[in-house]
């Protein structure tokens, strides 16, 4: 009897994990639908790996439970869960050829011979390494090794793929390339992905939904556009790259107003904020400024060289303004 694969929502229900007196996971609950690309985003120490390891079965929560469809898997052994895992450091077997590395999970499951050969070839094809099966890991680049790790994680057709910062060791260009490939792979195999990163750009561009974590809790869960446009609090806004939080005395309204550097612009005399340029950096066609207000607030704004009539220099006084549609109000707390 086979469970209906469509019923296999992963449901994490109120899990807690303590190390001594330290609470690494605090009442974490989340449902991940089959085929979804969910990202756990948060600063170092926020509990991302602990949550992923609990789902994988390497960590047992103190309370709460984890369901896969109707099945309680909270204490099921990792190998019984049929989840693929990709860790940060590749963790390939150095003495095994690429195809042997990829075949390893099949071997563990008693799958050998022609069926195994076919599955390995398909997995290597999916990650673009069809011609590298006879090499050893040391004969591959970092990005290629990461792809072998991916092939090894998907070769046995897992229910779920768990990825813990799989691209963090790679340079920016390779990272971008593999981000695109991961998305393509996700579409091609229709597998559920739970992806850990602390890179907000990566999270925004890849995910169906993002769970932002802080101090062992999920502080906001939503689609990338919802998080970007309606961060629930200052922490989420800052983590998603909002640079400026304007206090009441500058805005004349209650609470804080969050304004991105890209939405704060040079104004004529009518600008609502006066500041003095303290720093400027050229980034291609854009200049990124830091300016100080009289009351000691540091502000960031950008200027596009293409439509700049005047390029303010260090120590120059400027006035700045923003449009209401680009500002997000927050309670001051
Ligand atoms: N075995 C352990 N014993 C004690 N404390 C632990 C243990 N494992 C994790 N922690 C603590 O739990 C917290 C969460 O750790 P976790 O590895 O989940 O963070 P993370 O969000 O993955 O961080 P990073 O981005 O640095 O990988 C950290 O403060 C960590 O020090
Ligand atoms: Mg981690």
Would you kindly provide a brief summary of this structure?
This protein has helices at residues 48-56, 78-81, 98-108, 113-126, 142-154, 172-189, 200-206, 224-229, 234-239, 248-251, and strands spanning 10-19, 22-32, 37-41, 63-68, 71-72, 83-86, 160-164, 192-197, 209-214, 217-222, 244-246, 256-259, 265-267, 273-283, 286-293, 298-304, 317-321, 327-330.
Distinctive features:
single chain; 333 residues; alpha+beta; Rossmann fold; OB fold (Dihydrolipoamide Acetyltransferase, E2P); 10 helices; 18 strands; binds adenosine-5'-triphosphate
What does this structure look like?
It is built from 10 helices and 18 strands. It has 2 domains: 5-237, Rossmann fold (3-Layer(aba) Sandwich); 245-330, OB fold (Dihydrolipoamide Acetyltransferase, E2P) (Beta Barrel), CATH 2.40.50. 28% of the residues lie in helices and 32% in strands. With 333 residues, it is α+β, with helices and mostly antiparallel strands. A hairpin with a 2-residue loop joins strand 14 (273-283) and strand 15. The protein starts with 9 loop residues before the first strand and ends with a strand. The model has no long low-confidence stretch (mean pLDDT 91). It has a 6-stranded mixed sheet with strand order 6-7-8-3-9-10, with helices on both faces. It has a 5-stranded antiparallel sheet with strand order 13-17-14-15-16, with no helix packed on it. The protein has a 4-stranded antiparallel sheet with strand order 2-1-4-5, with helices on one face. The radius of gyration is 24 Å and the shape is globular. Helix 3 crosses helix 4 (113-126), helix 3 packs parallel to helix 5 (142-154) and helix 4 packs across helix 5. The chain has helices at 48-56, 78-81, 98-108, 113-126, 142-154, 172-189, 200-206, 224-229, 234-239, 248-251; strands at 10-19, 22-32, 37-41, 63-68, 71-72, 83-86, 160-164, 192-197, 209-214, 217-222, 244-246, 256-259, 265-267, 273-283, 286-293, 298-304, 317-321, 327-330. Bound molecules: adenosine-5'-triphosphate and magnesium ion. Magnesium ion is lined by residues 48-49.
């Amino acid at each position: 009897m086979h469970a209906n694969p469509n019923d296999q929502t992963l449901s994490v229900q109120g899990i807690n994990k303590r190390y001594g007196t330290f609470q690494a996971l605090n009442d974490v609950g989340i449902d991940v639908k089959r085929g979804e690309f969910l990202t756990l985003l948060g600063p170092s120490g926020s509990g991302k790996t602990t949550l992923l390891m609990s789902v994988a079965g390497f960590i047992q929560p103190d309370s709460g439970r984890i369901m896969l469809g109707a099945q309680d898997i909270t204490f099921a052994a990792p190998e019984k869960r049929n989840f693929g895992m990709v860790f940060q450091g590749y963790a390939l077997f150095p003495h095994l050829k690429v195809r042997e590395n990829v075949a390893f999970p099949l071997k563990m499951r008693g799958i050998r011979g022609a069926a195994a050969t076919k599955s390995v070839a398909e997995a290597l094809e999916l990650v673009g390494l069809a011609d590298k099966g006879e090499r050893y890991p040391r004969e591959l680049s970092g990005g290629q090794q990461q792809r072998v790790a991916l092939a090894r994680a998907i070769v046995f057709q897992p229910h779920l793929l768990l990825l813990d910062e799989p691209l963090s060791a790679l340079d920016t260009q390779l990272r971008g390339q593999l981000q695109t490939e991961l998305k393509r792979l996700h579409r091609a195999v229709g597998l559920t992905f739970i992806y850990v990163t602390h890179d907000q750009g990566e999270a925004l561009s890849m995910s169906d939904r993002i769970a932002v974590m802080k101090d062992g809790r999920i502080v906001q869960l939503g689609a990338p556009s919802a998080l970007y446009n309606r961060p629930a609090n200052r922490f989420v806004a800052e983590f998603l790259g909002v640079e400026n939080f304007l206090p009441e005395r500058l805005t004349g309204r209650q609470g804080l107003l969050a304004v991105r550097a890209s939405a704060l612009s040079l104004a004529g005399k009518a600008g609502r904020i006066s500041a003095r340029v303290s720093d400027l950096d050229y980034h291609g066609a854009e200049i990124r400024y830091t300016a100080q207000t009289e009351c000691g607030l540091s502000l960031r704004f950008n200027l596009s060289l293409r439509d700049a009539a005047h390029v303010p220099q260090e120590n120059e006084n400027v006035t700045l303004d923003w449009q209401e549609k680009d500002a997000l109000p927050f309670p001051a707390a």
